[in-house]
Amino acid sequence: MKSMNEFTKVGIVVSAQRERYQILVEEKLVYARLKAASYYVDSNEVEFPTVGDHVEVMVNEIGDSLITATLPRKSKFMRANPTPGMPDQVVAANFDYVFIVMSLNRDFNLTKLERYLSVAWQSKGKPVVILSKADLCDDIEEYVQQAQKVAKQAAVITVSSQTGYGMEKLTPFLQKGKVVVFLGSSGVGKSSLVNALLGEKVMETKDIREYDSQGHHTTTYRQSFFINSGAMVIDTPGMRYLHMADAKEGIEITYDDIEELTTRCKFSNCSHGSEKGCAVKAAIESGELSEKRWKTYLNLQREDQYAKQRAEQLARQQMKNKKKYSRKNKEFRKQVAY
């Protein structure tokens, strides 16, 4: 008879839908569920798996396998859970690049791009800004220049999945063994881009509505694909609004110009309001810094701080619930013993 260890393998989560996962184990796809004893019983800071995660799996040849552990991550993309009282969501893990996709129409929004960049830098993946639907744009260079001013350290690439324009510029990021996660609003062309990279239609696509420039939710759950180069691409559901979640470092990288300005203030505790010698205020008055960018920076900081406080409060509540459950469990065992 085989021991338990002989059935336990390491695999990669390639799709996550509700409570069921698809895992690539030794070049074979298996379906799996979470082992309750590993994830729900006496677990404190357990990481629930998501697409891209490396996991330990007890392989079952005749039914669903069991995921027994989530291995440490090198990168992860998180967003605050819009449902009150629920923990932050890990959307994807263990990727090398974050493709931030925006379409060259009314979806193009620099404030939104700053938000996505902050989350991408925080994830430990390297962001790449992809401006899609270039075939529908008459002034590509103007959009590129605007995006580059915001993206700074990140590459900005314009593509069209319909005509193939610019697609070759993605090759350096899609080498064998690399993992890329796609982020962007609904309808910006993520699914079309994935189809173009795969050379076949595996994702349903829907355009942004012309009358209000709003997208349809085409991808409804997280999934990944392997392209011919050997790279793995992870598609995520479109998000009309991306909540911040523990993105302090990412905000600092995205707004490094503002972070540098704050060091020039006359007083170290400057509130950047009415104080004399405020470098931020002077930069806004001179036009060096736009007031809109400054306000966005402050809004993201406040939102991130709120998300942090909410996460800490939730963690304390979960600890109380665990202690309460543990105490009741001990009392029940005593009653059964007698």
Output the structural class.
Answer: alpha/beta
H/E element order: HEEEHEEEEEHEHEEHEEHHHH
Helical fraction: 25-40%
CA(first)-CA(last) distance: 38 Å
Work out the number of β strands.
Answer: 13
**What's the gyration radius in Å?**
23 Å
What oligomeric state do the depicted chains represent?
A: single chain
Q: Outline the biggest β-sheet.
A: 5 strands, mixed, barrel
* Spatial strand arrangement across the major sheet: 1-2-3-5-4
Extract low-pLDDT stretches: 205-220
Mean pLDDT: 83
Describe the structure.
It is a single chain. Helix 3 crosses helix 4 (140-151) and helix 6 (248-254) packs across helix 7 (256-262). The strands form two sheets. A five-stranded mixed β-barrel has the order 1-2-3-5-4. Strands 6-7 form a two-stranded antiparallel sheet. Residues 205-220 have low confidence and may be disordered. The chain is built from nine helices and 13 strands. The protein is α/β, with parallel strands linked by helices and 338 residues long.
Brief sketch in words of this structure:
By secondary structure, this protein is of the alpha/beta class. It has helices spanning 4-7, 36-39, 110-122, 140-151, 190-198, 248-254, 256-262, 279-286, 291-337, and strands at 8-17, 20-25, 28-34, 54-58, 65-70, 76-79, 89-93, 97-103, 126-132, 155-158, 179-183, 222-226, 232-235.
